From TrEMBL:
Name this protein carries in UniProt: Putative branched-chain-amino-acid transaminase
GO MF annotation: an example: branched-chain-amino-acid transaminase activity
Names of required cofactors: pyridoxal 5'-phosphate
Enzyme class: transferase
GO annotation, biological process: branched-chain amino acid metabolic process
Keywords on record: Aminotransferase, Pyridoxal phosphate, Transferase
A cellular-component GO term for this protein: chloroplast
CDD domains membership: BCAT_beta_family
EC number: 2.6.1.42
Spans traversing the lipid bilayer: none
């Protein structure tokens, strides 16, 4: 089956398309030509709706589907970019394996960035995305840091829409889970010297996910890592570089073997100031004031983090972005973390230098529960939203 080149408001049929190209400036040192498709919206709507019928769905136990056992969907989106910044030869294609040269820069030097988004299905069968433009912007920031060309924010969002519509039958029913969307930008071209790849691939695939927290939001238990650091000043801790996650596997595996949920990392200079967990940003509540570590050179600018801050401010809370010491964190009234997978998760305890400090035994505290309900209702399309955060697909 041939692929289709995409990134247009008129979504193409994955079966047949007519192509045209348009030049777009993406980065000061990269100019790329992106293939656009001049086909009717009805084509992909007709194609996708054929997959949306419940009778065509496999017999899925949604509660058994998760991050550890990803489910294959129908289509993925992929487009390549040559050294001159010209994206071409790509679009929707059947989900499947990809080929990589053993000398690919992403394999040898880790040149790549990732993003993650969710798509929820509403009772009216429409599908909602939460702030996809923020992920597109963060991918561009990461690509610049990693010396890669990247799609514009608009092109990123359109590619996400296209991928979701082509896989819409895999979006779980309301309250059963979400479609996990994974954009990936990598240097797939072969190079053995320490230089940027001669070719890049922008790829999006999707997988169905059941409810992440089947029994409700149970508090998680963190252990503070005092010697190994997730990121250092001047490094790439502020971008979603693929290598950032491999670096924390050792401490995370050891922490889980000891009965902890995740690891909380300190700054590498003073070994005193809180940064983040392996995959989530950290917040504390003290006397109704919400504080979170300021974004500097070592903390990932989470989309959920940004949204929680904006929601909290709109609800009248004082929010401070500043250095937060581990001593201050241990004396907080509430502690919670935010991230793509957890949305907002309460912290039940933090163990530091062998001493365990507990916050709450079950569920969320007053402030964190209020913020979680507000955010999750917006993400799932259950609450009226006037900030422009929701993109609806029908």
């Amino acid at each position: 089956m041939g692929s289709t080149s995409a990134l247009a408001l008129d979504f193409p049929s994955p079966i047949a398309t007519t192509l045209r190209t348009a030049k777009t400036t993406l980065h000061s040192s990269y100019k790329l030509r992106l293939c656009l498709i001049n086909t009717r919206h009805q084509a992909i709507q007709s194609h996708a709706s054929g997959y949306s019928q419940a009778s065509e769905l496999p017999d899925i136990s949604w509660d058994s589907v998760g991050f550890d056992n990803p489910m294959t969907t129908d289509y993925m989106f992929t487009v390549k970019c040559s050294e001159d910044g010209n994206f071409s030869d790509g679009g929707l294609q059947r989900f499947g394996k990809i080929e990589l040269n053993p000398a690919a820069c992403v394999l040898n030097y880790g040149q790549g960035v990732i993003e993650e988004l969710k798509a929820y299905k509403k009772l009216d069968h429409s599908i909602v995305l939460f702030r996809p433009e923020e992920n597109g912007l963060r991918m561009r920031m990461g690509a610049e840091r990693m010396c890669m060309p990247a799609p514009t924010v608009e092109q990123f969002v359109q590619a996400v829409k296209l991928t979701v519509l082509a896989n819409r039958r895999w979006v779980p029913p309301p309250n059963k889970g979400f479609l996990h969307i994974k954009p990936l930008l990598m240097g797939n071209g072969p190079v053995l010297s320490l230089t940027p790849a001669p070719e890049f691939t922008f790829l999006i695939y999707a997988s169905s996910m059941g409810n992440t927290f089947k029994g409700g939001l149970e508090p998680i238990n963190l252990v503070v890592e005092n010697e190994i650091h997730r990121a250092v000043r001047g490094g790439a801790g502020t971008v979603n570089a693929i290598g950032n996650y491999a670096m924390v596997l050792k401490t995370q595996v050891e922490a889980k073997a000891d009965g902890f949920s995740d690891v909380l990392y300190l700054d590498s200079v003073h070994k005193r100031y809180v940064e983040q967990t392996s995959t989530a940003n950290i917040f504390l509540v003290k006397d109704k004031i919400i504080s979170t570590p300021a974004l500097e050179e070592t903390i990932l600018p989470g989309v959920t983090r940004k949204s929680i801050i904006e929601i909290a401010c709109s609800q009248g809370y004082q929010v401070e972005e500043r250095p937060v010491s581990i001593e201050e964190l241990l004396e907080a009234d509430e502690v919670f973390c935010t991230g793509y997978a957890v949305c907002l998760s309460p912290i039940g305890s933090i163990t530091y230098l062998g001493k365990r400090v507990s916050y709450q035994e079950t569920g969320l505290g007053g402030v964190s529960e209020q913020l979680y309900q507000a955010l999750s209702n917006i993400q799932m399309g259950l609450a009226e939203e006037n900030r422009g955060w929701i993109v609806t697909l029908k």
